[in-house]
TrEMBL record:
Protein name: MarR family transcriptional regulator
Domain of life the protein comes from: Bacteria
SUPFAM superfamilies cross-referenced by the UniProt entry: Winged helix' DNA-binding domain
InterPro entries named among the record's database cross-references: WH_DNA-bd_sf
Length: 209
């Protein structure tokens, strides 16, 4: 009975992998057709490849870009230019935002201790001040100001020493975003929903949600 169960698992695995290959092939073929490659040429190429491999099952793949693991955060240039014209941010606030860019986690847009970690740990105010080589008092003042202006958002994330509430800090993706602008995570949309209705921010030229 155990052997039969193993066979079922193996068959399910093979079937699942086959479906994944079919979906990947269909995606690439659709892309080829979208970019102007006639279906007849695609079919002919597939036929030739099949014959060349002894009619074995074909898998079409694309080479992964050597830059696919490069971490980056995007400035929304039009929005920053707009804020500059409105004199919305102070010099200290601009410097702070520039300094924390290396610590903005991909997709979550949370300021963390190390963006390379599989599960990044949010950085508190004291830790952020150390990361950007600033004193805690100035860092705290700047953060509170940016929260009031809707550029940062605080989310309670537990209790630290001395029973002090711990907060995670997130950057408004309309200013700086480490992720896909077409797929802004729901938690960021919820956090900055009200902020994007504030005076000046509601008039930003480029809206992600």
């Amino acid at each position: 009975m155990k052997k039969e169960n193993n066979n079922v698992v193996n068959l399910n695995s093979v079937s699942k992998n086959a479906r994944k290959r079919d979906l990947k092939n269909d995606e690439i073929l659709n892309n080829l057709e979208h970019f102007g490659v006639p279906q007849e040429q695609i079919d002919q190429a597939m036929k030739i490849l099949s014959m060349a491999t002894g009619n074995k099952e074909l898998y079409i793949g694309t080479k992964r870009s050597p830059h696919s693991k490069v971490r980056f955060a995007q400035h929304l240039q039009e929005n920053l230019g707009f804020l500059n014209k409105q004199e919305y941010l102070s010099s200290k606030e601009k410097v702070f935002l520039s300094d924390v860019i290396p610590y903005i986690a991909f997709s979550s847009n949370c300021i963390v201790l190390d963006i390379k970690e599989k599960n990044p740990v949010p950085a508190n105010i004291t830790e952020i001040s150390k990361l950007i080589n600033s004193n805690r008092s100035n860092t705290s003042t700047t953060i509170n100001s940016l929260v009031k202006k809707g550029i940062l958002a605080k989310a309670e994330s537990g209790i630290e020493g001395n029973n002090v509430k711990a907060y995670s800090l997130f950057v408004n993706p309309h200013i700086i975003f480490a992720g896909d602008k077409d797929k802004v995570p729901e938690h960021l949309q919820v956090m900055f929903h009200k902020a994007m209705k504030m005076k000046i921010l509601k008039d930003l030229p480029d809206k992600l949600f």
